[in-house]
Amino acid sequence: MVNEVLSPYREAVDAVIEAGGEALRQCYQCGLCTGTCPWNYLKKFSSRSLIHQAQLGTADFESEETWTCVTCRACVARCPREVAIIDIMKALRSIIAEMGAGYMPESLRVTLKNIAGAGNPLGEPAENRHQWAGDRKYPEQSELLYVPCCVSAYDPVARRIAQATAAVLDQVGVPFGVANEPERCCGESVRKAGNESLFAALAQHNIETFSRQGAGRLLTSSPHCYHTFLNEYPDLGGRFDVLHYTQYLAGLLREGKLKFGKELNIKVTYHDPCYLGRHNGVYDDPRELLRGIPGIELVEMDDYGPDSICCGGGGGRIWQENVKGERLSDLRLDQALATGADVLAVACPYCLLNFEDGVLTTSASIQVKDITELVREAL
Which of 28, 108, 196, 342 lies 20 to 30 angstroms, CA to CA, from 368? Predict the structure, then answer.
């Protein structure tokens, strides 16, 4: 009788584990993840409770809290047992994805539909992917392939990142190409939303596209693309040398190939993107670039480096609405303003969009610029 009563709960636990949430077995409910989570600056969110419910087989798959996690990795970095909490969140979302689109936030459902149909989250025509480049022609074959993410390719605000990156590479004299057959979304948000089959299809298309063009190295603007190409595509056969542009340009600076001819004379503070910093340990290269620009005074916010607070765009949250008063980007913007900086420098299209929105809605007296824009200004 007892086994009959417990059977549905055991099956629910097994389902989470089979979906990739094996880390459930390691968690001993110390609660440090909840204490660490940046959401608790703004609202109550208990990752510990979500995990415990999953352990008991009582997870509420219709709860909005399942979609709150921004996968910033702050909790994983501080967990005493190094529990892969993000994998648990992905597993819960994967089960929801199998239940049907009606169980996920509407804005995210539309985004995934756009990605599945058009190959990008904005639902833009694939043939418009390289419009940011204007009339510039790229070689048919290229060992170095620049892959701007969907946001910096299509979004009218973030497009300036791709344009600045290409301009800097041209001015320094670096030969590079873009995908002849437009690449599709890297699939990072898709995977964080639990749709593994769509992620695999996107990845396979991109791997074949990059390989046909003879690409050995991929240069990215987005830390999310960087992380996905570097850490997840190899499992599907996509083995490339992957660099975020801050790594590449910092290398050119060290080699003396990137030389600045103009002083900017501004105070700058830098926001560490989660998927560049905590996920992949890239902290020094962006700062080396900024310090190398004549006239820039770099000042740090209260929370920086491994302690940086997420902008709120990870884990698919960039495609969901956050009501005013519950925006991590506004919290981070306040920290930037406290430094007295003229410019908040970013190295991620998601961060750029979130902070630009924050400046518009709060009339904050600070400019938001991608590091490539500052590099371009100083050349």
Answer: 108
